[in-house]
Write a sequence for this structure.
């Protein structure tokens, strides 16, 4: 079935969130270290309403994004890889934003030799933030246990944020007002939990349940919202056998054959 409408976005857009109150669509742009905001009904080459981008934002390879409708705050998870960029150069990757206002400055403006890896983080902004906006809170440091934080969800009534840590095989939970090197208040992890390379996390506020999508075990697992430690899921939805690992293919680009070992190598 063909999509009802298409929206042209920058390359490497990762996750999205919708603000029903303002009817706005928020999208993280991984390589541009940016968030772009569109009308929820935007289509084709409609321009963004605004963009959050710049050194002060402290975004570094942003992935997950969530909005707290109760506080009006925007939560973003960052993997931590970043390069400095000359934002005076109005370039747009692959010319997708040519002639479209509020488009993020593309990777062509990166400053050679400035690339680096920082600790992963969660950066927090007002949902109406724009431009080179500094975060209101930054959750970052060894005590956070963040490890490739790929998706984030908010439970507004409990005042909690839930983070799926891809390479940490865990879901870490924090207070929505956490800041600095804050330890999680709960960690869902372990063999009984069946969490393996989690790349998605969603909160069911009505039923007080937590849903986790696991790339490593081709499954969706469901828990009580207050689950902690090595807690077994209440329900499991599978797309493969329970005793087999997922192929771990995600955006593969190139293949090579190792004739000595008889193996096929795939880059993701």
């Amino acid at each position: 079935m063909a999509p009802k409408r298409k929206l042209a976005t920058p390359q490497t857009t990762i996750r999205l969130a919708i603000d029903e109150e303002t009817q706005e669509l928020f999208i993280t742009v991984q390589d541009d270290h940016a968030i772009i905001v569109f009308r929820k009904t935007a289509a084709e080459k409609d321009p963004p309403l605004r963009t959050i981008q710049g050194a002060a934002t402290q975004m570094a390879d942003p992935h997950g994004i969530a909005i707290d409708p109760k506080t009006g705050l925007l939560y973003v998870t960052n993997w931590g890889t970043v390069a400095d960029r000359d934002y005076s150069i109005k370039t747009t990757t692959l010319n997708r934003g040519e002639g479209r206002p509020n488009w993020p400055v593309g990777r062509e403006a990166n400053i050679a030799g400035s690339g680096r890896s920082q600790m992963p983080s969660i950066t927090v902004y007002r949902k109406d933030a724009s431009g080179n906006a500094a975060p209101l809170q930054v959750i970052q440091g060894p005590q956070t246990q963040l490890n490739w934080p790929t998706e984030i969800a908010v439970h507004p009534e409990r005042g909690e944020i839930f983070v799926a840590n891809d390479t940490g095989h865990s879901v870490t939970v924090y207070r929505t007002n956490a800041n600095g090197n804050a330890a999680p208040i709960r960690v869902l992890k372990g063999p009984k939990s069946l969490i393996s390379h989690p790349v998605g996390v969603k909160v069911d506020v009505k039923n007080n349940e937590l849903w986790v999508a696991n790339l490593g075990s081709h499954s969706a697992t469901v828990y009580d919202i207050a689950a902690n430690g090595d807690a077994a899921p209440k329900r499991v939805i599978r797309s493969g056998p329970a005793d087999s690992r997922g192929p771990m293919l995600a955006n593969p680009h190139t293949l090579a054959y190792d004739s000595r070992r008889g193996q096929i190598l795939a880059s993701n």
